[in-house]
Amino acid sequence: MTKIKQFLTTGVLGPLSIGQARDAAVANLGNADATTVADEHFQIETLKFGSLEVAISSGVIRLIAVYFCDADVQVPPTVAFDDFFKRSTTQADVELWLEKQGVQVSVLDELTFGNQVCLVSTAGVHLLFVDNVLDSLQLASK
Description:
Blueprint: H1 4-10, H2 22-29, E1 34-39, E2 44-49, E3 52-57, E4 60-67, H3 91-101, E5 105-107, E6 116-121, E7 126-130, E8 133-140
Antiparallel strand pairs: 1-2, 2-3, 3-4, 4-8, 5-6, 6-7, 7-8
């Protein structure tokens, strides 16, 4: 099982990491539920595995995202979480958990507005909250 703490502190989600080859991701995750090409010019391919999305450009992973807003958070077994976060987890609950785990985060002002708050971990993982509820964890290449 995968630890959310590991993802937040290292940027590695189970067997996935930014910059990893597409073929390695597919080997670790299996066949995608859906595949789209969002921008044919930049050749950005998005693979969807339940609540997990992996965006690929130039043959390598550029984005790893887990969405908690889905009715039933489903991810492949190789990235299934064995700690805490689930659907409808509040920002207050996440912040308490982060403190207990010793995970450092800060507010990312440029992505915090209206009903959205974005925290960012030291590894660069964005924790997005909408209406004080966890929406997603996202890590993108720089």
